[in-house]
Design a protein that fits this description.
Blueprint lengths: L1 E5 L3 H11 L4 E6 L7 E2 L3 H10 L2 E4 L9 H6 L6 E7 L10 E2 L11 H12 L3 E5 L1 E3 L5 H7 L4 E2 L8 E3 H11 L5 E4 L8 H11 L7 E2 L6 H7 L4 E2 L2 H6 L9 H11 L18
Parallel strand pairs: 1-2, 1-4, 2-3, 4-5, 5-7, 6-13, 7-11, 8-10, 9-12
Helix pairs in contact: 1-6, 5-7, 7-10
Length: 275
């Protein structure tokens, strides 16, 4: 089998590594063709790879209002198609559960929802992903670096998924029936709880609380949406089971294999009047 991946980033590289261990041939694109990848703008080479691929996966997010892959190579795509989308397409659910039948396009990520719909219309397997964490990119790293924080928003929950569980879900879905699949762990919960647990694993006090107004517009948008992502369809149709069913399993496993460099000045402890 031969897979072409548009956008050879963090998650795509983990998918590629897992498939290469299964004797797949995998090639990816980046903007500049670094590290043995193909430059996205090298149209002749990209079209040659499209013609040879049995499977094509895009992890490229929208650029403005357009999907760059569909805009540039949409007429050339063939074979089994897959797309890494976002659970952000569901918008705010006020903490309720959302599955693949929930409405999309109602939140702040309208361009992502449009791309999601366009890939579905082409018969792709669309994997909707929540917050992604894994080696080198987890709450452990943020706490150790002193950049982690908590925001006091009672009732706020997020879903997340370990990058290797995403890789296993995508691989399980490459030849599954076309459609949308949520890949998320089994325990949506407050980001505050996750950050405090990461700090405890490192023997550090919980990260400080900050006000919502102090965050960047992008981060405020992140906290403006509140939902729990259901993964039942992926478990039922793909026979997928996350190896890290909640953040505790994932962070303990990361803590066992990595040693994040702890900042010289640890995050400030929460004051006595903070939850």
């Amino acid at each position: 089998m031969r897979l072409l991946i548009f956008g050879f980033g963090y998650t795509a590289r983990r998918i590629a590594a897992a498939l290469r261990n299964r004797d797949w041939s995998v090639i990816g694109t980046t903007r500049d063709g670094r590290d043995g990848t193909i430059a996205f703008a090298d149209a002749d080479r990209v079209r040659s790879e499209i013609a040879q691929a049995t499977h094509i996966l895009s992890s490229v997010p929208p650029d403005g209002d357009a999907d760059p892959v569909l805009a540039t190579y949409g007429g050339d795509l063939r074979g089994t198609l897959a797309y890494l989308s976002s659970t952000g397409v569901y918008g705010d659910a006020d903490g309720a559960w959302v599955d693949e039948g929930a409405p999309t396009g109602t939140g702040r990520r309208t361009a992502r929802a449009q791309a999601d719909a366009e890939w579905l219309a082409r018969g792709a397997r669309v994997f909707r992903l929540p917050g992604i964490y894994g080696p080198g990119r987890s709450p452990l790293d943020r706490v150790a670096a002193g950049t982690a924080h908590r925001v006091d928003l009672p009732g706020q929950v997020f879903s997340r998924c370990h990058v290797d569980d995403i890789a296993s879900g995508v691989i399980a879905g490459l030849d599954a029936p076309p459609g949308a699949y949520n890949l998320a762990d089994d325990l949506p919960c407050s980001q505050n709880i996750v950050m405090a647990y990461a700090a405890a694993l490192l023997g550090l006090p919980p990260p400080r609380f900050v006000s919502l107004d102090s965050l960047s517009p992008m981060a405020r948008g992140f906290y403006a949406e509140n939902r729990r992502v259901a993964n039942g369809k992926a478990k039922r149709v793909l026979r997928w089971q996350p190896a890290y069913p909640d953040y505790r399993f994932g962070l303990r496993a990361l803590s066992a294999i990595t040693s994040p460099a702890i900042a010289s000045t640890p995050p400030a402890a929460a004051s006595s009047d903070q939850r």
